[in-house]
Every structure is written in structure tokens, then in C-alpha cells.
Amino acid sequence: xxxxxxxxxxxxxxxxxxxxxxxxxxxxxxxxxxxxxxxxxxxxxxxxxxxxxxxxxxxxxxxxxxxxxxxxxxxxxxxxxxxxxxxxxxxxxxxxxxxxxxxxxxxxxxxxxxxxxxxxxxxxxxxxxxxxxxxxxxxxxxxxxxxxxxxxxxxxxxxxxxxxxxxxxxxxxxxxxxxxxxxxxxxxxxxxxxxxxxxxxxxxxxxxxxxxxxxxxxxxxxxxxxxxxxxxxxxxxxxxxxxxxxxxxxxxxxxxxxxxxxxxxxxxxxxxxxxxxxxxxxxxxxxxxxxxxxxxxxxxxxxxxxxxxxxxxxxxxxxxxxx
Length: 323
Ligand code: UT7
Fold this sequence. Notes:
By secondary structure, the chain is an alpha/beta fold. It has helices spanning 32-39, 53-68, 92-99, 116-129, 153-156, 215-236, 254-263, 275-278, 285-295, and strands at 2-13, 17-20, 43-46, 77-81, 106-110, 135-143, 161-173, 181-189, 197-199, 211-213, 246-249, 304-311, 315-322. Helix 2 packs across helix 3 and helix 6 (215-236) runs parallel beside helix 7. Oxa(dethia)-CoA binds at residues 30, 34-35, 38-39, 114, 153-154, 157, 215-216, 218-219, 222, 252-253, 256, 280, 310-311.
């Protein structure tokens, strides 16, 4: 028998305020038609004044715990993927830990921008396989609305706020590609591309800063690198594109999602798409899509899932798991 990190529960939280594309027509020179046709986005959620990433993360964590039929006392560790922690430190994960009433175990943030959730899944999987934790809350939560330059039409129309969470649990499995749980991971980064997507603030500047992106360049890297990493992860699991029930991609742009699926020779009927409703929620987009995919009745126990993401760094990667 082999130890696997199996998904025991999933949940998400979206802030109440929904912002349609039309609201941006009053802010910058843009149109609903441009935003829809270039990105696939129709609306996004924005956090309320004073609502922080740890608030969103806590709500998603509670939803995932309820779905798992577990309490915070059953959790050994919290890994929170985010680039928009409430404060420079302490971690937003420790704030979630306190909100959940946990004084045991350990909690930390992980920052790999839009690839954050894939990195967090891989990290949590490693902790479970090495016996450091038996049950891990893996959360992706972001408030990118706080990083927007509202005068930059090339970025401000693309991002949204939200959170999603999984409970991963150590379970004994036969040790075949038919096992439930995380089957393989494939991570990459290349810091030579750090200027393609970054925030022009941080401790070295004294200000929080705003998001800056060379969209066309990131787009070019995305389709190629995402299909490559997804194939590499499938190879490691001894599986191929034909075995995939669902691609659950990072939700940045419908054209990137379609381009990657095409390269993987997986039809769009087998791709979970939420970008129209959420916009790009960075590290939150994959757990949000997993949770929505389950709620829609798309993802079912036993389904083979490939998640893939790319973002600032550049950092990218994929995880193959059976639900
Ligand atoms: O999650 C992290 C990873 N990030 C991504 O994956 C984002 C990757 N990039 C993209 O999704 C796309 O590149 C964008 C959606 C950002 C842009 O689409 P594009 O087809 O690459 O457009 P573009 O940047 O080449 O811009 C085309 C034109 C430009 O005008 P000119 O120079 O051709 O006259 C832009 O100024 O569209 C203009 N434009 C806009 N027009 C109306 C840029 N933003 C807007 C806007 N409304 N909001």
C-alpha cells in the first residue's frame, strides 16, 4: 500500500459585490465587448472595504471543513497560497488559524502568484507523504482588487477577489494510477521573466504598489508552458491526455484555457471554466473552479483531474489528482 494525499472536502467563498464589465466603461476607455472577446470575463467579485484576504480564506476554509465533515481540531496544518496577505507579516495563514480557533498545528503562506495553488498542493502533498501532517487545509485566497491601477485598462478589467480551499487527508491506496489523491506534480519557475508581471511596491519601496503586466508576452508563454507542464505531470503519473476527465486550469483568459486544452487534445466539454464569473483571482482561481465544478455536478469521485497555472516569476506548474 502507498500513502496518498486525498481530497476529503472542498469549499469556496466569493465576496458579495459583483462588478459587471459595464462598470469599467465609466472608469477607462474600454467596452464590455472588448473585455469579453479578449479575455472571456463578464463579471468579477470585489471584496468590501475592510474585507481582507484572511477573511475570504477563513470563509472558504469553513466551507471545506463542513464539506469534509471535519472540525478545525482535526486539521494539522494550513497552507495558504496568496500574494495579497493582509499584512507584510505575520502570515495570513496564522490569521486564518486564529479565526478557526486553532492553537495547535502550524500555518504558513506560500507565494507563487497565480501558480500559488499548484505550488501549495505540491507542498501539502509532500508534507503528507513525509508524515509531517495527516490533514492539511490547502487554501488559495486573494484580494487583487487592492493591487489594481484603476487607470490602466490593460490590467484593471482582468482581476477579481475570492477564495477556495481543499482538505487533503493521508489515506492508504494500492499505489496505482487508479488511486484517489495526488498522483504527480510538476513545478517550474524562470526568474529571467520577472519583469513581465509584477507589483511595483513592497518593503524595498515603502508602498504596497500596483500590478504591472505585459499581457501579450505573458499570454505567449502561457499556452506553451501550461501544455508542456500538464503533459509532464501526466507522464510522471503514467497517464495521458486521453485519461483526463477534467482540466481545471488557472482562470486568467478563456483564450489561454482553450489554447492549452487544444494542445493537450482535450475537448472543451472536459474543461471547468469559471473565468466569465470570477475574472482572474490568481492563486484562488483553481480551488474556486474545483469547488464550483463539484457544485455544478461536473467533478465526481474517481474523476482524473489535471490542474495547471502560470503567473508572475514566471512560475508555473501542474498537478494530476484523482478526485
Ligand atoms: O494570471 C497571470 C497570468 N496572466 C495572464 O495569463 C494574462 C495574459 N494575457 C492576456 O490575457 C491578454 O494578453 C490580455 C487580455 C491582457 C490582452 O489581450 P491581447 O489580445 O493580448 O491584447 P493586447 O494587449 O495586444 O492589446 C490589444 C489592443 C491594444 O491597442 P493597440 O495598441 O492595438 O491600439 C490595447 O491598448 O487592445 C488595447 N486594450 C484595450 N482596449 C479596450 C488593452 N486593454 C484594453 C481594454 N479595453 N481593457
